[in-house]
């Protein structure tokens, strides 16, 4: 195990192993509960999740990575939630390698108080992928003018300028899978539906609507 102070090693170990053709060794680390916990302590929740991108061919590693993605807010707030998060999201799956991780999580002292059954949202298929952007996307809401409805917010992109919803761009497109509706932006009008928001960690959501599946975005915006 790497020393906790070796930040370079913790950050790039998996990447270097994959580039060296050591896929199996990298997958064994990513599916080891002891390594997952040590990585979380050394690099934080986001650093742990980054180790699972791009997704591996190994199914167990993909499931763990997606479980970590769903658990990012909880792990960022309290890393001691790791065993309960993994048990809650992976405990109901029938998979030999995943079952080993769950069993190790249940032996962690942080597992107490122990949940009675796995009741958190399990990892599932990818629900959203944004294509065309190469960097972060940020939205600047337009201020209201004299009580009149605001115009659509201006979306600023570090890779290809700015745009407003309703103006089509040939370089930046959004693709949604699994819902059958198009990605839309809030308009600020009273008759508009709740805005659909895209997050870097795990897909999309609408206010007052819960999603049964939330997977990591495979392309950073």
Fold topology:
Blueprint (H helix, E strand, L loop, with lengths): L6 H13 L3 H8 L2 H18 L8 H12 L1 H6 L4 H9 L5 H11 L21 E4 L5 E4 L13 E4 L3 E3 L9 E4 L20 E3 L3 E3 L16
Antiparallel strand pairs: 1-5, 2-3, 3-4, 6-7
What does this structure look like?
The protein is of the alpha+beta class. The protein folds into 2 domains: 7-111, no CATH class; 125-143 and 150-184 and 213-221, no CATH class. It contains 7 helices and 7 strands, in the order αααααααβββββββ. The chain has helices at 7-19, 23-30, 33-50, 59-70, 72-77, 82-90, 96-106; strands at 128-131, 137-140, 154-157, 161-163, 173-176, 197-199, 203-205. It has a 3-stranded antiparallel beta sheet with strand order 2-3-4, with no helix packed on it. Strand 6 and strand 7 (203-205) form a beta hairpin. It is globular.
Characteristic terms for this protein:
single chain, 221 residues, alpha+beta, 2 domains, 3-stranded antiparallel beta sheet, two-stranded antiparallel ribbon, 7 helices, 7 strands, globular, disordered C terminus
Biggest sheet strand line-up: 2-3-4
> In sequence order, what are the helices and strands, one letter per element?
HHHHHHHEEEEEEE
Give the class from helix and strand content and strand pairing: alpha+beta
Question: Number of folding domains?
Answer: 2
Strand-residue fraction?
A: 5-15%
The residue-averaged pLDDT reads 75
Low-confidence parts:
168-191, 199-204, 209-221
So what's the overall shape?
globular
How many separate helices? Answer: 7
Number of extended strands: 7
- How far apart the termini lie comes to 33 Å
Percent of residues in helices: 25-40%
Largest sheet: 3 strands, antiparallel
- Kindly provide the radius of gyration, computed on alpha-carbon positions and rounded to a whole number of angstroms: 20 Å
